[in-house]
Amino acid sequence: MSKTYHICRVLRLISRRKRPRTTAILLAGGVGSRMQSAGETKQLMQVCGLPLIVHAALAFEQCPYIDDIVVVARREELKTVYDLMEQHGIRKCRRVVPGGETRQLSAIAGFEAIDGEKTKFVAIHDAARCLITPGQIADVVAAAYAERAAAAACRVFDTVKRANAAGYVTETVDREALWLAQTPQVFDATLYRAAAYTAMQAKFVATDDMMLCERIGQTVKLIDCGTDNFKVTTPGDLLRAAAVLQGRRKDGQA
């Protein structure tokens, strides 16, 4: 069976509303130490009148390919986050659960909170990427239906240098094959379960979920979601995110 035929079959299933049940796992358990905030965690900071986590959750709420949302939050923020989901009409939110000591453990905590019998695909997303759109989510999810694993990313446009420990350039890296990883990262739930738990048993540390699948030999399809899908990390990123959102509202996109 050709890959083209397989993708067409997947798209037909989607159009007939017989697509696999898909749960989003929204990771919002970080502290945001580089944000230099006084007592407020990054995911609760506001951009254009809404907390970062709400912007992200609304995108998944509005995406027709997402059936459920599980939010992973800091234990002391569980009620605050749950109340925000109710206040802003995030009806797909089924559970708000505490995260682990690392991002990897938080993703597993979210995975353990999904409906394991019904969920066939999981879409793991960092709440700090508050500018993701419902359309971009749909593109990544549809690709995962066809390929079993897909992730948001963007191409590298700058010239990339490799340097030694002293800061001297040792080579110029070919950027044609380079991408910057983003989220959501979407996986067949059975595949993700095998990848995540074998990594945990081997004490393998991953900085994103694609690494877990790469480790067991699963290819991941990258979907270009552009440079606006950046992770809010520093105070300057808040200003940049506000500018993007204001531009979308002006153009009638938000």
Structure characterization notes:
The chain is built from eight helices and eleven strands. The mean pLDDT is 91. It is globular and about 55 Å long. The protein has one domain: Spore Coat Polysaccharide Biosynthesis Protein SpsA, Chain A. By secondary structure, it is α/β, with parallel strands linked by helices. The termini are far apart. 37% of the residues lie in helices and 23% in strands. Helix 1 crosses helix 5. The strands form three sheets. A seven-stranded mixed sheet has the order 5-4-1-6-10-7-11, sandwiched between helices. A two-stranded antiparallel ribbon has the order 2-3.
Describe the structure in brief.
This protein is α/β, with parallel strands linked by helices and 254 residues long. 37% of the residues lie in helices and 23% in strands. It has one domain (19-250): Alpha-Beta Complex (Spore Coat Polysaccharide Biosynthesis Protein SpsA, Chain A).
Chart the SSEs and their pairings.
Layout: H1 3-15, E1 22-28, E2 46-47, E3 50-51, H2 52-62, E4 68-73, H3 78-87, E5 93-98, H4 103-112, E6 121-126, H5 134-147, E7 149-155, E8 160-163, E9 169-173, E10 179-188, H6 189-201, H7 210-215, E11 221-224, H8 235-250
Parallel strand pairs: 1-4, 1-6, 4-5, 7-11
Antiparallel strand pairs: 2-3, 6-10, 7-10, 8-9
Helix pairs in contact: 1-5
